């Protein structure tokens, strides 16, 4: 073969201008160049309207692609947005420390229940790992999640029967009535992995995702064991898979409930028709999985509420954080006047010692927030995600760090700005950034 074989072929030469045009990157702000982006923007417009977030709008620019702009002036500390998650999940290890509603991520039960259950799980965890696994998957603990990786807390400081009476609600700690939490509602499917703050959250979770993901007795045995394997695998690797499963089940459940019964199907056959639709959906999912599965990557896609597939690069997954009432409680005790504090600490001191430094662990997880995820990163952001005292659930709350003028872009930092340069860069790499895109990094 001569060198001629690498020169352009006749077709390359003939269509050179057209090929060059195809290879040019179209400007991001051109809606015509990216017709598939249009539904996303309509989706955001509708979302903003339905949630009455009239202070912001989702826009696109040639410089930064998609972003969020202010529709009005904001002062420092003003609330810009309370963004409801599309889908989210608590980190599996965090379930050891924080018992929250599986739907809205509000802390549930009581301060006593939170402390008692955490001490209980940690106490069986420190014996040996095998025993811990068995207990965690057993019927006496309301969690089916993986429990390996417990921290070393000396739970021996509190006797087991005291822990049990805390969990059962027989023992009351002083001043906990100031920190009332919603009582615990069970999963309608009978699994022990999910707990809720109310019947309405239990029902919403069931209708949105959980009816397809429940490992309770209402689920047919073969599907249950497959689900258990899936949940164990996700817990042992990356809980982003649980979030992805919720996004997929959400879309599938919407679809087979919405499909109209065709005219030639008798209403008495509706059940079998819906079952056929489910089978079609499962086959489609299997084909999709075969088509897009890339072992090198986390899930490559996500779905918006209409079932549009949105690239993960467009919809960043973000941290879900809810502050712990257990931390608030011990801070409250510490701030009491000396005489009251001394009296209260006689009771609370041993529990604080047993909990150790982890007493303040918040609820942590991964979630997709449709509007927050449109906000661009800046190392000098003008807004931040910040939970105020009244924000007790999994909503993302964005407040202004400085006055923001109408039409200014609203930016947040995706990472901890106080970290050293290399760590910030490593964290931003998760979002597809390199230092090229974040030129305002200074080490
Ligand atoms: Zn709830
Ligand atoms: Zn369940």
Automatic annotation (TrEMBL):
Pfam families attached to this UniProt entry: SET (PF00856), zf-MYND (PF01753)
CDD domains according to UniProt: SET_SMYD
Record keywords, A-Z: Metal-binding, Zinc, Zinc-finger
Keyword Metal-binding: yes
Domain SET: 54-415
GO molecular function, one term: methyltransferase activity
Name of the protein this chain belongs to: SET domain-containing protein
Organism annotation: Eleusine coracana subsp. coracana
Gene: ga18944
